[in-house]
Design a protein that fits this description.
Mean pLDDT of chain A: 84
Helix content of chain B: 55-70%
Largest sheet of chain B: none
Family (chain C): Belongs to the sodium:solute symporter (SSF) (TC 2.A.21) family.
Number of helices of chain A: 5
Order of helices and strands of chain A: EHEHEHEHEH
Order of helices and strands of chain B: HEHH
Number of strands of chain B: 1
CATH architecture of chain A: 3-Layer(aba) Sandwich
Catalytic activity (chain C): ATP + protein L-histidine = ADP + protein N-phospho-L-histidine
Radius of gyration of chain A: 13 Å
Strand order of the largest sheet of chain A: 2-1-3-4-5
Structural class of chain B: mainly alpha
Helix content of chain A: 40-55%
Largest interface: B-C, 49 and 58 residues
Strand content of chain A: 15-25%
Distance between the termini of chain B: 23 Å
InterPro entries (chain C): HATPase_C_sf, HATPase_dom, His_kinase_dom, HisK_dim/P_dom, HisK_dim/P_sf, Na/Glc_symporter_sf, Na/solute_symporter, Sensor_HK_Regulatory
Enzyme class (chain C): transferase
CATH class of chain A: Alpha Beta
Oligomer: heterotrimer
GO molecular function (chain C): phosphorelay sensor kinase activity; transmembrane transporter activity
Low-confidence stretches of chain B: 1-9, 83-109
Largest sheet of chain A: 5 strands, parallel
Shape of chain A: globular
Chain lengths: 123, 109, 887
């Protein structure tokens, strides 16, 4: 069974790109584009890895991450955070909120694959 | 930007007030005028190159004296005919209403 | 002896007249009648005590010796009087507002109510005035002797002096000390003096007229007589002329008796205005016939006769006994009025500043428990009067009535002129201090004694001849009449120059080097700025110094702890901290009541008024307090206005600051936003480029990914265009392309550009009324603004069924176009920011870099119009004002 990656991101083109890269590498990729109901999706899917955008419509990625870390059932899930703002402040906030890894857009596809591989052991 | 005058005194005053101010100036200058006129005989020389004559000096001194009395009458009358002395000074001291009041910075947008 | 008896009878009759006039005036004043008592004329006439017997007899003697020089003694006061606006006005105002009782009180009040200073001034005044009183007694004695040459040296004439002295003491005590309050006007005394002023003027004028037209036969003959007399030549040294003028001016201000009539007895400040011309006139008239009388006297009187008595002897010589008696009365009234006023002035000083403090200290609290302080104070004043007159008599007897007295007038002037620096400096210079005043007075007084008074008794009497010749301790620069090697000067000019000069120098230097106590600074401010501070005379301007004195006194009576507690409580009630409340009428009344519980009402009253310097709280005072309250309210409303203004400024500053802070936050936000807006398309472009580079894609995928890359590139380009557009607009380098179009054409274009073919649920309502109007402006730019506004409605309008109303209306040559939607509008706190660059409301409500409205604002600015947000229209409402552009 392939590992499942949940991608929470609002830009359709970026979803398309990441999905393509990861699924070609053998990951099962699910995506979700809203902020409000993202937690329900996370609980329902129980993914092996979450890729989370900081700027989501309706809810900030940091809040979402805090919720994830607060829920004992899913708290251990590795989270890769993506941001397009690239300020040091964001990186610090992400670390404090408990992000496993932090990446600034734009990234190279190889970087993305490497990060995902390092966070989620392939089964 | 032009600063309002620091003293807060109005620059232009009504004609009557202006006239009164000049009378105050005159009242202040009168003793100086008197002193100068009274000193004048010291510079006089008599007809023969000697001292001036007492009779002439006497007539001169009393003429100047009379003149000063008359000027003093005129000045105090004009000063007195206006309102009370104090009121004008109060006005001068209080000055114009503050022009800065009410104008705030422009709000952009 | 028959003449002498008549003279005595006339004298007694005259004195009885004076007593009855004074008595009647006092009664009238007490009953509140007699407004004429307070007329400016009476005030002017009372000033004439400047002209004493020294004037009446001495001026002619002076003129017989040195010609016109005598006139300087009257020119000085004339100049001071016509210059009343400069000095007298302020002195009188201060005197009234501070309830000054004497010149010693004035100077001590100014320098922090220093009693040491008051004592110094009092001593100086007594030393300076006593010989002067002696001079008056001498003149009366001499005039009696003139009528009876045989009795001249006899006992009967000598005893006249003592009768006169006793009579004057009685009169002064009767009318000068009716009330304890030295500040109260002595109507009886003043009216008697005014009467005497008339008598002496009439007498001198009568003698003058008699001499000129009676003895000489007209003006021409008199002038010829003057020209033929020994004083025909005007041989006056410039330095003496100037020095005497200045000296008499100074003395006019500093003489205790002048201060008494001019300031203390002043009824109404406006009287000065009349006196400003009337008193110079009086002085002119009184000195008018002096030179003719002197010249004629020199001609007619036998060699060696005393020129001081020409005024009396000329009528006697001509057998005009009636005129002689009138002349005698003139001299008599000059002498008596001077003695009366001088005695009142000096006794006030002596009793207030020397006797009472000593008595209070000596008796301490014990005396306050028993006995009536009020009676003690009155008694002190009465005894002082007696002592002052007696001192004068003693001086007269001891000097033997010799010629030494004749010169005493000017010497006394010079002594009292030492008060001038401290007095005038205190009125105009806030930096003047008590130490400075003491130093100046000390230096001046010492030099005056050494250079003028002591040598005046004659060489060898007090100052040994060796000191006169070789200086003190053999130091040549300390010769009394040639200080600092300045020889060859007139002794009087020399002494005045050095004493007043070094006095002033010491006063200024020490004042600058010393530091005033708080009470001094308070009093200094009140004196110097009297016209700003005391709006009207009689207002309560008592300083904290009085409270301090009151506290000290109360402590002695009530015990320290209790008194301090009471004062502190009163201070707190007045909103002050510490132990010293303002000596307000309420507080004084309260204190008096509290003290009367211990020592009886009369004692408490006397003690409080002794310290505060006034009697009971009168209706007038209460009115003054009411006035002051009104002033304070006015002042505090001014303060309120000022603080309101400050609050306004502070609010404006706060707003600006908030805006700046918000802008800074916005700017940070914008950088993030720009970063986000740039990186987001970049991410897609990079990812898909790498995917394409990796190969292994089918044609469909290739096409799809290439399309994405293309779309994202366009998105990037748009953003960069916006940024560039804005920067071009802001830098003002934009070139306008002015065209003409109708409004509906522009709107059509804008709606097409913003919405395209698909309205997307937005309903646009237009108002065709003015849409046919021609616009002459940059049509493309205006359309850009409209596109932005319409696109914003699409992005932000949160109504279920969004509706945009566009209506236009002309305003002069301009056109006003409103865009109003039916959403919730823009929150008030954001209204100030929406046109700022990079502002985006909320944070992530909608895409876009927040440049749209900023660009719109810049465009409208370039077009000469404006775009504003109109609040309160039901939804977001923007108003675009478009002017017609030239060319």
């Amino acid at each position: 069974m392939t590992s499942q990656v949940l991608l929470i991101e609002d830009e359709p083109n970026i979803i398309e790109a990441i999905s393509f890269i990861l699924s070609r590498d053998g990951w099962q990729v699910r995506s979700h584009s809203g902020g409000q109901d993202a937690m329900d999706v996370v609980r329902a899917r129980k993914p092996d890895l979450i890729i989370l955008d900081v700027m989501l419509p309706g809810r900030s990625g940091f809040d979402l991450l805090a919720d994830i870390r607060a829920d004992p059932q899913i708290a251990a899930t590795p989270v890769l955070m993506l941001t397009a703002r690239g300020q040091r402040k964001d990186r610090e906030m992400a670390e404090r909120a408990g992000a496993s890894l932090f990446m600034t857009k734009p990234f190279s596809n190889a970087e993305m694959l490497e990060a995902v591989r390092s966070l989620a052991p392939r089964t | 930007m032009s600063e309002p005058p620091a003293t807060g005194r109005p620059v232009f005053v009504a004609r009557g007030t202006y006239r009164r101010r000049r009378m105050v100036d005159a009242a202040a200058m009168l003793p100086i005028l008197g002193a100068l006129l009274f000193m004048l005989p010291l510079l006089w020389v008599g007809a023969g190159g000697g001292a001036a004559r007492t009779s002439i000096v006497m007539i001169y001194v009393f003429a100047v004296w009379t003149l000063l009395v008359v000027l003093s009458v005129v000045i105090t009358r004009i000063l007195g005919s206006a309102t009370d002395t104090r009121r004008e000074e109060d006005e001068a001291a209080e000055g114009a209403p503050d022009s800065a009041a009410g104008s705030g910075p422009d709000h952009a947008g | 002896m028959a003449t002498l008896n008549i003279l005595v009878a006339v004298c007694v009759a005259y004195v009885v007249l004076l007593f009855s006039v004074a008595f009647a005036a006092d009664r009238a004043a007490r009953r509140g009648r007699g407004a004429w008592l307070r007329s400016p004329l009476v005030y002017t006439l009372s000033l004439s005590i400047y002209c004493t017997a020294w004037t009446f007899y001495g001026a002619v003697g002076f003129a017989a010796r040195s010609g016109m020089e005598y006139v300087t003694i009257y020119l000085g006061p004339t100049l001071v009087m016509i210059g009343w606006w400069w000095t007298l006005r302020k002195m009188v105002r201060v005197g009234r507002s501070q309830r000054i009782t004497s010149i010693a009180d004035m100077i001590s009040s100014r320098y922090g109510k220093s009693n040491l200073l008051a004592v110094c001034v009092t001593i100086l005044a007594v030393i300076g005035t006593t010989p002067y009183i002696a001079l008056q007694l001498q003149s009366v004695t001499l005039s009696f002797a003139a009528f009876s040459p045989a009795a001249g040296a006899g006992r009967s004439v000598q005893s006249i002096a003592i009768y006169v002295a006793l009579g004057l003491t009685l009169f002064t005590i009767l009318f000068g000390t009716r009330n304890l309050d030295a500040n109260e006007r002595h109507h009886g005394v003043v009216i008697a003096i005014a009467l005497e002023a008339v008598v002496k003027l009439l007498a001198l004028l009568a003698v003058g007229i008699f001499v000129v037209w009676g003895l000489e036969g007209g003006l021409g003959a008199t002038l010829a007589r003057i020209d033929a007399s020994p004083i025909a030549a005007f041989e006056v040294s410039g330095s003496r002329w100037t020095a005497l003028t200045l000296l008499s001016a100074a003395a006019f201000l500093c003489l205790p008796r002048m201060f008494q009539v001019m300031v203390v007895e002043n009824e109404d400040e406006s009287h000065l205005r009349t006196a400003a011309w009337a008193f110079p006139l009086y002085l002119m008239l009184i000195s008018l016939f002096v030179v003719p009388i002197a010249a004629v006297g020199l001609d007619l009187m036998p060699e060696g006769s005393n020129p001081d008595l020409y005024v009396l002897n000329l009528p006697l010589l001509a057998g005009q006994d009636g005129l002689a008696i009138l002349s005698f009365l003139g001299g008599f009234s000059s002498a008596t009025s001077m003695v009366i006023v001088a005695a009142i002035a000096l006794s006030t000083m002596v009793s207030n500043h020397i006797v009472m403090p000593i008595w209070l200290r000596a008796t301490g609290g014990a005396a306050m428990m028993s006995g009536d302080v009020r009676h003690v104070a009155l008694l002190a004043r009465r005894l002082s009067i007696g002592a002052v007159v007696f001192l004068g008599y003693l001086y007269f007897r001891m000097s033997g009535g010799g010629t030494a007295l004749a010169a005493i007038g000017l010497i006394a002037f010079a002594g009292l002129a030492q008060l001038l620096p401290a007095l005038m400096g205190g009125l105009v210079w806030r930096g003047a201090t008590r130490t400075g005043a003491l130093a100046g007075l000390g230096v001046g007084f010492a030099l005056w004694l050494y250079c003028l008074l002591l040598p005046s008794f004659g060489p060898g009497v007090i100052v040994p001849q060796s000191v006169m010749d070789h200086g003190l301790f053999g130091l040549s620069w300390l010769r009394p009449q040639a200080m600092f090697w300045t020889g060859g000067m007139d002794p009087l000019v020399h002494a005045v120059m050095w004493s007043v000069g070094l006095n002033t120098a010491a006063f200024c230097t020490v004042s600058m080097l010393s530091f005033p106590r708080p009470v001094e600074r308070l009093q200094g401010a009140q004196f110097v700025n009297v016209f700003e501070h005391s709006q009207r005379p009689g207002s309560w301007t008592g300083g904290l110094g009085q409270s301090e004195d009151l506290l000290i006194m109360s402590q002695r009576i009530m015990g320290a702890a209790e008194a301090q507690e009471m004062f502190a409580r009163a201070a707190r009630r007045q909103g002050l901290s510490g132990y010293l409340p303002e000596p307000s009428p309420e507080f004084l009344e309260f204190l008096e009541r509290r003290l009367s519980g211990s020592v009886g009402a009369a004692t408490a009253h006397a003690m409080v008024s002794q310290i505060v310097g006034r009697a009971t709280v009168s209706v007038e005072d209460l009115l003054a307090v009411a006035d002051e309250t009104a002033q304070i309210m006015e002042y505090s409303s001014q303060l309120e206005a000022k603080s309101a203004e400050q609050a306004r400024t502070a609010r404006q500053l706060r707003e600006v600051n908030e805006k700046l802070t918000q802008l800074s936050v916005q700017k940070d936000g914008f950088l993030s936003q720009v970063s986000h807006e740039l990186r987001t398309p970049m991410t897609s472009i990079r990812a898909f480029s790498e995917i394409l580079l990796g190969g292994g894609l089918n044609a469909q995928e290739l096409r799809k990914y290439a399309t994405i890359i293309h779309a994202e590139s366009l998105r990037l380009t748009r953003l960069l265009d916006d940024l560039l557009d804005l920067s071009v607009l802001e830098s003002g380098q934009v070139v306008l392309n002015v065209q003409t179009a109708t409004l509906d054409e522009v709107l059509d274009r804008a709606i097409a550009g913003a919405i395209g073919a698909a309205p997307g649920g937005l309903e646009i309502r237009r108002d065709p009324g003015f849409e046919a109007m021609m616009l002459r402006t940059d049509i493309d730019r205006l359309a850009q603004v409209f596109i932005n506004l319409i696109a914003n409605v699409r992005k932000y309008c949160d109504a279920g069924a969004p509706v945009l109303d566009i209506h236009a209306e002309p305003d002069g040559t301009r056109l006003i176009i409103d865009f109003v939607d039916n959403g919730t509008g823009i929150p008030i706190e954001d209204e100030a920011l929406i046109f700022e660059k990079f502002s985006r409301l909320g944070d992530a409500r909608a895409p876009g870099a927040g440049l749209g409205l900023a660009i719109c604002r810049e465009i409208m600015h370039r077009l000469g119009g404006a775009i504003t947000y109109v609040p309160g229209q039901g939804g977001a409402a923007f108003r675009v004002t478009v002017p017609q552009m030239p060319g």
